[in-house]
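thought: fold this chain, then report.
action: predict
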Amino acid sequence: MEHEKKWLSSKEAQKVAHIKGCDLMHYRIQGKLEFKKTGNAYFYLKESIVKIKRNPTQKKISLKI
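observation:
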């Protein structure tokens, strides 16, 4: 079975990581989160959010979708 990527909305990502919207934005700008933008909405890869939750000082992720 192929592993399907799980994308979270901004609100879902905030709840999972227990962070505020401005922190989510800063992590995205710093390149610490893998994300995609659809229209005006951002969606974050759940794996990236879990990593931020575990280690908020992690190095940048080079892949942006």
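thought: worth noting. The chain has one domain: 7-54.
final: tokens above.
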